[in-house]
Amino acid sequence: GRGFYTGDDGYLYCDSLRVDDIRAQVKTSPFYLYSKDTIASNFAAYESALTGVESIIGYAVKANNNMFILRQLQAKGCGAVLVSGNELKLALLVGFEPEKIIFNGNGKLPEELAYAVRAGVLINVDSEFDYENIREAAAEVGQVAKVLLRINPDVDPQVHPYVSTGLANSKFGIRNSHLQWFLDRIKTESMVELVGLHSHLGSTITKVDIFRDAANIMCDFVERVRAEGFELKYLNIGGGLGIDYNHRGEVLPTPKDLIDTVRDLVARLGLVLVIEPGRSMVATSCALVNTVTGVKSNGNKNFIVIDGSMSTLIRPSLYDAYQHIQLTAPCTGKVENFDVVGPVCESADFLGKDRDLCTPDKGAGLVVLDAGAYCMTMASSYNLKMPPAEYWVDGDEVKLIRKAQTLDDVLAQFEGL
Ligand code: LLP
Known about the structure:
With about 425 residues, this protein is of the alpha/beta class. Helix content is about 30%, strand content about 25%. The chain contains twelve helices and 20 strands. Strands 4, 13, 14, 15, 16, 17, 18, 19 and 20 form a nine-stranded mixed sheet that branches. It has an eight-stranded parallel barrel with strand order 5-6-7-8-9-10-11-12, surrounded by four helices. The structure holds ligand LLP. Ligand LLP binds near residues 60 and 203. Ligand LLP binds near residues 60, 104, 203 and 315. Pathway: Amino-acid biosynthesis; L-lysine biosynthesis via DAP pathway; L-lysine from DL-2,6-diaminopimelate: step 1/1.
């Protein structure tokens, strides 16, 4: 399959199927549509980039937690990176091996940590109190906790501040000046074993030099920690590789470019490389498929109003993120400049601003591309616009892979109260 592309006939396709035919078939709108093959090829790109490198690919489940996608990745040998007890339970249910699971977060709860220790997954330590909670969980469960220290390397990922995590003022991780506290504690602690170091700089990173700088800094940390007598096994460089949201033909770094910047360093240190890709694994595999409700002008500005909204896909509203928008059928009207907006009662409810698009008819299909990461997982039911169904194209077939939420699900929350 080729993922999403415009065919010679001017229609949008997902793999071998016309998106308009899929719209006619599924009848619901909006919906998320995935190319199963694209997820497979994104994973394969990481796998082949890692040839000859002892490694764990920990897919960041927060990017997309659809169980069909998780099962597909798990079956290929992928690991999982999790940030809540529920994500951890889901990953174990799907069958991810505990040795390939990493539990992350700056506010892990005591009961979540007890669960993680019992499951035998790797745990990233974020702070002093987090360390104390991990130690207590290990004592309570009666099992040694295997931990990595999450270092804040103070490297600028040059991305939107909301998705930047490794700068000195970030809420995540341990600063250099605090490191000794952890080393002194763990040295005398029998229930906590330090097995590695972790860093995560941020998301949507488009320059691999940034990963190289961070890896060099982490290399110094590894040497310092080893000099204190710890036998480290893992270097976890986090996730964060960006994708080409702009569709302007820019050349962006690939998984291979990323791995090649750290390959020698990891080999020299004799460490197992852990990576935590989310976006670059799933974003390109999906489009949010909407239906045009109508077109309006207020005298100053033209609007295409669709049935999808900030409830369905919040990245443009929240991060001012650009996601490419196109119509599913060839142009028959006049090209104009539009804001593409939803029906939610907020001016922040837009999917795209100032887009040159063909004036669509009522009922036309309009897609927001690159919607596989942080779109469905961030959907809400604001205005009671419920998170929609998900489908994927598998060979020549369209399959429902998640049911839409409904008003009945909301009503059920009040039943019997
Ligand atoms: N590891 C850690 C510790 C993380 O915090 C994240 C993402 C990842 C890995 C995966 O990063 P990725 O490869 O997906 O860039 N909602 C935002 C993105 C938030 C990212 C949070 N952390 C967005 O829609 O752009």
